[in-house]
Design a protein that fits this description.
The protein is mostly helical and about 425 residues long. The protein contains 16 helices and no strands. Helix content is about 80%, strand content about 0%. Helix 10 packs parallel to helix 12 and helix 11 packs antiparallel against helix 14.
């Protein structure tokens, strides 16, 4: 279950990640409270979240392209330093009582830095463990993220009451030093370098062509968007189901515990496959339908626990397959696209689910969204079971894109066996 921890480099990387994630959640809780306290509007909190995620939707592919071309170590150090400075400035302006516009501007700036930071972190994190341990490392990363979330949320409430929100931002500023220290002290000789992109496959356009040429990737991203927008925006549906803030806090704790369980379950598996992703997506969709039908908050909380666990298994498997089943030189761009898909899903799904909860009711919304994600998963499974060339053609037809030839043999998403063609044509690049 803890294979990746055998590596000294990964142990340093994981410890730094835990500290950084804890600090980030402390700042998020403090920031949401500051915005709500200054404006008295939940809509303003939503605007703050949107400003933090919007850069990822707009600039993700360009940031991924940089991560594939430039030394990721330098990108990480520069971005972590900028994060530390922005968090310290946020503490200062909140302490001085600056306008909410300044807080929004700093939130957008932090989101802009994160766009370039995340693909570099993903690409560098894949180098601290052997390829066969990457899935285990991603799963353990999910556990650390969930643990950091619990630590950050619980400690933020205590520290904010005792010291004020600016203290949370200062602590987060210091937490970025842990990642910088880990990057500078990791043994480079023990890293597992990733291949760089050849000259004809650099840049954003090449990355988008790579995605567009693979029906498998298109389907996985489309499925990920559907599952994230309708099946993973539980911060909205939990709030709609909760009669008061106390119940909402308890449900949030249950959800966080479920994410830890899911991360451990993913880490215990030797391999994380697309078949596992589809099975867990079907199960969590059925559980989501059940969560809207089960009576009482206790029943809802019981069903919520395995839903949270399944969500982490899905996200971990998706990230692992994207990294292992694509060319090394494309990894930064694919991670950036995956991050942009997740950000877009949150931006679209959260207001949609909120609107549905107000119109038809929260339980009915959970049932409807669960049915839709189940249908999407079944459709994706049927398409992925088809041969590669039919899968690509169908994916392009459904997504209304011009059909492109299936990737050639040897391509990570091409057919396993070379096509039976004359030798003269087998050399033609498509």
């Amino acid at each position: 279950m803890f294979r990746a921890l055998r590596s000294r480099n990964y142990r340093r990387w994981a410890f730094a990640d835990l500290i950084s994630v804890t600090g980030s959640w402390m700042q998020l809780i403090g920031l949401n409270w500051v915005v709500l306290d200054r404006t008295g509007s939940a809509t303003s909190v939503g605007i703050s979240v949107l400003l933090g995620t919007l850069p990822s939707v707009l600039l993700g592919p360009w940031a991924g392209s940089l991560a594939d071309r430039l030394p990721v170590r330098r990108i990480i150090l520069a971005c972590q330093a900028l994060h530390a400075v922005l968090a310290a400035v946020l503490a200062l302006v909140v302490w001085q009582g600056a306008s909410i516009t300044v807080v929004f501007a700093l939130t957008f700036a932090a989101g802009l830095v994160s766009v370039f930071d995340l693909p570099a972190l993903g690409r560098f994190g894949a180098q601290v463990v052997p390829r066969e341990d990457l899935g285990n490392a991603v799963a353990l990363g999910s556990v650390l993220s969930s643990t950091g979330r619990i630590l950050g949320m619980s400690s933020a409430a205590v520290l904010a009451a005792a010291l004020g929100s600016p203290a949370l931002f200062l602590i987060n500023s210091v937490s970025f030093l842990a990642v910088m220290g880990a990057v500078m002290t990791i043994r480079r000789a023990e890293l597992h370098p990733l291949a760089a992109s050849p000259a004809d496959r650099v840049g954003v356009t090449a990355g988008l062509r790579y995605v567009a040429a693979s029906g498998r990737l298109l389907l996985l991203f489309a499925l990920g968007f559907t599952l994230s927008s309708l099946g993973r925006n539980y911060q909205v549906t939990m709030a709609a189901m909760s009669p008061d803030a106390t119940v909402y806090g308890l449900l949030s704790t249950v959800f966080a515990i479920g994410t830890v369980v899911g991360g451990l379950a993913a880490a215990a598996r030797r391999t994380l496959t697309v078949r596992l992703l589809l099975v867990v997506a079907c199960v969590t969709s059925l559980l989501q339908v059940t969560s809207g039908l089960v009576p009482g908050m206790l029943g809802f909380a019981i069903v919520l626990l395995p839903i949270a666990a399944g969500a982490v298994v899905i996200d971990t498997t998706m990230s692992t397959r994207i990294q292992l089943d694509t060319a090394d030189g494309m990894r930064g761009r694919l991670l950036a696209v995956n991050s942009a898909v997740g950000a877009a899903a949150g931006a679209v799904g959260a207001p949609l689910l909120g609107w549905l909860c107000e119109r038809i009711g929260a339980p009915e919304t959970l049932v409807l969204a669960g049915v839709l994600t189940l249908l999407a998963t079944v459709f994706a499974a049927s398409v992925l079971a088809a041969p590669a060339h039919r899968r690509t053609a169908l994916a392009h037809r459904v997504l209304r894109r011009p059909h492109q030839p299936a990737p050639p043999a040897g391509h990570p998403h091409g057919p396993v066996r070379p096509a039976k063609r004359p030798r003269r044509r087998a050399r033609v690049r498509v």
